[in-house]
């Protein structure tokens, strides 16, 4: 089983108000950029404690939360009764596992920098999204490596927006746009966070 990099911090993950504010900004950007409705079944890739899906839940019918961290999933499970939509939880590593189904959209916050092969992940997203469905993927702009002060399985120190956009287009997504969703303020600096949206 892969190492759970968040085992020791899941319980206190949401005590960092800057982190909570950042994801709330991302959720607001998704709601603003993508037309959501209560008939939709979405997937949250790298759902963690559920910060992102909490914000999006009132605008969707069902969200399937996908995360490899048992500790993070336990935090999300505790929220099940107060979410604004139906919740399904899958504890798996989507970089290696396959899902034989499709979703109306895929949302994700601050997870792609933990994924080694970005092109392959976008390819998998394309298969998982229904024709006409969307992706709304948020992550860090390129940074100097100081964003993470401890090892959480990071493969990328943020992303160049143009290259990230090209990866989504190469996977087959159309109408791909990247905008600034938030700025994460940390003692070591301010880190811009972007949102990429596109459609199959």
Content-based structural category: alpha/beta
Which runs of at least 5 residues are low in confidence (pLDDT < 50)? none
Number of helices: 5
Order of helices and strands: HEHEHEEHEHEE
Helix content: 25-40%
Instruction: Please give the CATH class.
Output: Alpha Beta
Cα distance spanning the termini = 33 Å
CATH superfamily: Vaccinia Virus protein VP39
> How many domains make up the coordinates?
1
Strand order of the largest sheet: 3-2-1-4-5-7-6
Strand content: 25-35%
Radius of gyration: 15 Å
- CATH level 3 topology: Rossmann fold
What does this protein structure show overall?
The protein has a 7-stranded mixed β-sheet. It is of the alpha/beta class. The chain has 5 helices and 7 strands; from the N terminus they run H-E-H-E-H-E-E-H-E-H-E-E. Helix 4 packs across helix 5. Strand 2, helix 3 and strand 3 form a beta-alpha-beta unit. The termini are far apart. It has a single domain, classed as Vaccinia Virus protein VP39 (Rossmann fold).
Can you give keywords for this protein?
200 residues; alpha/beta; 5 helices; 26% helix
SSE layout and pairings?
Blueprint: H1 17-33, E1 41-45, H2 51-56, E2 62-67, H3 70-77, E3 86-91, E4 103-109, H4 118-128, E5 129-140, H5 161-170, E6 174-186, E7 189-199
Parallel strand pairs: 1-2, 1-4, 2-3, 4-5
Antiparallel strand pairs: 5-7, 6-7
């Amino acid at each position: 089983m892969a190492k759970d990099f968040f085992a020791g911090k899941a319980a206190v993950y949401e005590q960092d108000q800057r982190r909570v504010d950042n994801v709330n900004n991302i959720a607001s950007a998704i709601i603003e950029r993508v037309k959501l409705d209560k008939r939709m079944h979405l997937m949250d890739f790298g759902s963690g404690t559920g910060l992102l899906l909490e914000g999006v839940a009132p605008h969707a019918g069902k969200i399937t939360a996908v995360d490899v961290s048992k500790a993070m999933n336990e935090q999300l499970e505790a929220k099940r009764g107060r979410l604004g939509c139906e919740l399904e939880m899958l504890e798996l590593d989507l970089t290696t596992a396959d899902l034989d189904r499709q979703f109306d959209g895929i949302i994700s916050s601050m997870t792609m920098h933990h994924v080694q092969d970005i092109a392959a992940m976008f390819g998998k997203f394309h298969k998982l999204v229904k024709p006409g469905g969307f992706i709304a993927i948020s992550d860090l702009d390129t940074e100097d490596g100081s964003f993470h002060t401890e090892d959480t399985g990071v493969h990328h120190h943020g992303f160049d927006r143009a290259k990230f956009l090209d990866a989504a287009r190469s996977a087959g997504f159309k109408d791909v746009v990247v905008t600034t969703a938030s700025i994460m303020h940390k003692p070591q600096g301010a880190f811009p966070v972007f949102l990429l949206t596109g459609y199959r």
